[in-house]
Every structure is written in C-alpha cells, then in structure tokens.
Design brief:
about 60% helix; mainly alpha
C-alpha cells in the first residue's frame, strides 16, 4: 500500500503537520534501528489502541517521550476517535490484524520520512 497519499492528506491539518521528530528522537531511532522501533509500535498499538474500548481513549498516547507517540499524533493513529475520523476504522470493536498492520505501517512510513529530513 502507498502511504504517501495518506501522509500528504494529513499534512493539510495544521495540528497534524506541526509534529516532527527532534534530533534526540532521530538519534533514538538510529540507535535502536527501524525494526526495534516497529516492534515498539506494535507493542503500543496492541496495548493502547487495538482493544475494543481502550483505557483512557483519547488520552492514551503521550505527546512526547517516544518517536512512535509523536508519529501516532502526526498520523491520526493516537486514539480511536482519530482513527475513525481520518481512517474510517470504527470504534467499539477490537482492531483486526490487518488494521493493526495498517496503523503500524503508516506510523513507520511517517518515521522513515522524518529520518530523511
């Protein structure tokens, strides 16, 4: 799937467009490697986003502290409300494995683009 069109659309939101990886975040990604960051993304998505009714939905993703968290806000994959609004993934149901893959791949596409800057 080509995530570039989705990422371009997200840039139209002033809120989403303001997120970027700072140098310390990029250093963390370089030190850990993209595969470890992908594993972190799967862990965070499965724990905080994938359940039918996530705990503290709408407030479960910090605004900083890990590159994946920043990417989640930039890609509107931070809560079930944003997932529905931007990606039409319904609330009140457990995310399917395909939906989880979509979310993680979108997050990783954004991070990979940020690493080029």
């Amino acid at each position: 799937m080509d995530y570039s069109k989705i990422l371009e659309k997200l840039k139209s939101s002033a809120f989403r467009a303001k997120f970027c990886l700072k140098e310390k975040d990029k250093t963390y990604v370089r030190e850990k490697g993209l595969e470890k960051i992908r594993a972190h993304a799967y862990d965070f998505v499965n724990a905080r986003l994938a359940p039918e009714n996530p705990v503290n939905d709408g407030k479960q993703t910090p605004m900083r502290g890990h590159p994946v968290f920043i990417a989640q806000h930039a890609t509107a994959t931070c809560c079930r409300g944003c997932l529905f609004k931007w990606h039409k993934i319904p609330k009140n149901k457990k995310l399917s494995p395909e939906e989880i893959d979509f979310v993680v791949n979108l997050i990783m596409s954004w991070i990979e683009n940020q690493m080029k800057n």
